[in-house]
Amino acid sequence: MMQGKLRWWLALWIALYFTTAAALESDPLTIPKGSPREHAIGLYNDGVLLMLQKHYVSAQQKFEAALALHEAFPEAHNNLAFSLRVQHGVNAERALNHYDRALTLKPDLRVAYVYRGTLFVQRGELDRARADQAKLLTLDAKLAERLARVIAGAPPNEAFEGLAAQYD
């Protein structure tokens, strides 16, 4: 009971923080009680906390566990891809697969375009990065400008704008 309340308050704090820090990709959803999705959302929220602490391997494990329970979870795919991408270059293909899946599930997940585009730049695939930037222009001009700066050679800002929000 106490852990549930702590998780709720922590999720609320993080949601409020990110609302002021960057545009969030989804509003918190009601968690269906007693379902595999409920457990998946709990694992996902734990992964978000680990990412905020820069524990990317542990976060990766939480997102993978969440996706094992609920594969059609675009925010978990996005955050798993982010965790993979910042760990090491050998994870680039796996990260790309998860960004692609996140965008298949939720084509307007704006930060996924920014970070997939950043991954394309890191891989030297500038045409693909520019395609993500063009799509992003239709969704969010500010994020499109951010990706344009990365394409132009600016270092990507790895602050946690790439995270999808926690769920209540």
Give a structural overview.
The chain has 168 residues and is an all-alpha fold. It has one domain (2-162): Serine Threonine Protein Phosphatase 5, Tetratricopeptide repeat (Alpha Horseshoe), CATH 1.25.40.10. 68% of the residues lie in helices and 0% in strands. It has helices at 2-21, 36-52, 56-69, 74-87, 92-105, 110-122, 126-137, 141-151. The longest helix has 20 residues, at 2-21. Residues 8-27 have low confidence and may be disordered.
One letter per element, helices H and strands E, the order comes to HHHHHHHH
Count of strand segments: 0
Give the helix level as a range of percent: 55-70%
In terms of DSSP E residues, the strand content is: under 5%
Indicate the radius of gyration in whole angstroms. 15 Å
Count of separate DSSP helical elements: 8
Distance between the termini: 15 Å
* Mean pLDDT over all positions: 81
| Estimated structural class | mainly alpha
Descriptors:
8 helices; mainly alpha; 168 residues; Serine Threonine Protein Phosphatase 5, Tetratricopeptide repeat; 68% helix
